[in-house]
């Protein structure tokens, strides 16, 4: 794989993040009063800063465990699927909109 593939993957991640941040501001606009919009944006964008702080030590421990490095992907994939399911079940475009 090498540095070139890592570089390309990081570029793809970097191009996806602005779309997520745009979504965060859009959701904050719909769901919060103007005076608390900053707090909503903070709440929705915090996982991008805290996630690596929590994930990296756990991943290191899992890599050294009896399950090895694949367990990192299984755990993170499971957590992601649970969160996506919860998001789909509970998220609405606006507070007064019906659930899909």
From TrEMBL:
<feature type="domain" description="Major facilitator superfamily (MFS) profile">
    <location>
        <begin position="1"/>
        <end position="100"/>
    </location>
</feature>
<dbReference type="InterPro" id="IPR011701">
    <property type="entry name" value="MFS"/>
</dbReference>
<dbReference type="GO" id="GO:0022857">
    <property type="term" value="F:transmembrane transporter activity"/>
</dbReference>
<dbReference type="Pfam" id="PF07690">
    <property type="entry name" value="MFS_1"/>
</dbReference>
<feature type="transmembrane region" description="Helical">
    <location>
        <begin position="6"/>
        <end position="28"/>
    </location>
</feature>
<keyword id="KW-1133">Transmembrane helix</keyword>
<dbReference type="InterPro" id="IPR036259">
    <property type="entry name" value="MFS_trans_sf"/>
</dbReference>
<keyword id="KW-0812">Transmembrane</keyword>
<keyword id="KW-0472">Membrane</keyword>
<protein>
    <submittedName>
        <fullName>Major facilitator superfamily (MFS) profile domain-containing protein</fullName>
    </submittedName>
</protein>
<dbReference type="InterPro" id="IPR020846">
    <property type="entry name" value="MFS_dom"/>
</dbReference>
<dbReference type="GO" id="GO:0016020">
    <property type="term" value="C:membrane"/>
</dbReference>
<feature type="transmembrane region" description="Helical">
    <location>
        <begin position="72"/>
        <end position="91"/>
    </location>
</feature>
<feature type="transmembrane region" description="Helical">
    <location>
        <begin position="40"/>
        <end position="60"/>
    </location>
</feature>
